[in-house]
Structure to design on (227 residues):
């Protein structure tokens, strides 16, 4: 799986938007970009994923660069509950079942200040 | 729809004992994954199973660890003769299909004394 690079940590204020960047310069044409997050003392939680177009769901938005070498997870209004480690993960959609595993990097630790 | 269930949530074992961790996937999910998170480290994939089959065990330690997902009942991660280095949080995830998102359980925190 191609590797991703994320900042180690970021800070945000409550009620403000948060932009979490991820670089994946060696992404292949069949790699989907997935985001998961892990709240303290909990299991990871799926957030969003996309291939080429920007994506929105109830939790967040995913903005994907035109060349797909980077992406940004956008939390529109951060809450204290959004404090977590956010992981950007690439998953190859066509390599078959053997690559279903998620390869977690170190992620970005998001702190939200009241 | 209940989420992924893991039990026990906390497990304490002495060195040399066996640990059995159970995972019940979400209803309708036939794909199960086990991950381990050592203290102060990231999540590492261990094994991927479908009903009665191990699909990918590339992350499993070569000795003492085994996993199964029988036709009936939960998936089991078994650690024989535990050592202090096995102390970690073990997370199970399930998915509906090969490329669907994975839903994680709350984890089992294993402490080896």
């Amino acid at each position: 799986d191609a590797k991703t690079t994320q900042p180690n940590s970021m800070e945000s204020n409550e009620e403000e938007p948060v932009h979490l960047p991820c670089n994946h310069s060696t992404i292949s044409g069949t790699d989907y970009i997935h985001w998961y997050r892990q709240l303290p003392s909990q299991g990871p939680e799926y957030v969003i994923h996309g291939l080429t177009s920007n994506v929105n769901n109830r939790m967040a938005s995913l903005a994907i660069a035109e060349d797909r070498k980077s992406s940004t997870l956008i939390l529109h209004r951060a809450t204290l509950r959004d404090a977590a480690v956010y992981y950007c993960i690439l998953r190859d959609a066509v390599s078959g079942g053997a690559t279903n595993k998620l390869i977690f990097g170190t992620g970005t630790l998001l702190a939200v200040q009241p | 729809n209940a989420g992924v269930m893991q039990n026990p949530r906390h497990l304490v074992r002495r060195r040399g004992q066996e640990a059995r961790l159970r995972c019940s996937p979400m209803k309708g999910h036939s794909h199960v994954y086990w991950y381990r998170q050592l203290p102060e480290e990231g999540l590492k994939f261990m094994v991927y199973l479908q009903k009665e089959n191990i699909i990918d065990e590339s992350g499993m330690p070569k000795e003492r660890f085994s996993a199964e997902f029988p036709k009936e009942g939960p998936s089991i991660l078994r650690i024989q003769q535990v050592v202090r280095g096995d102390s970690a949080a073990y997370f199970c995830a399930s998915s509906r299909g090969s490329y669907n998102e994975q839903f994680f359980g709350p984890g089992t925190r294993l402490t080896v004394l």
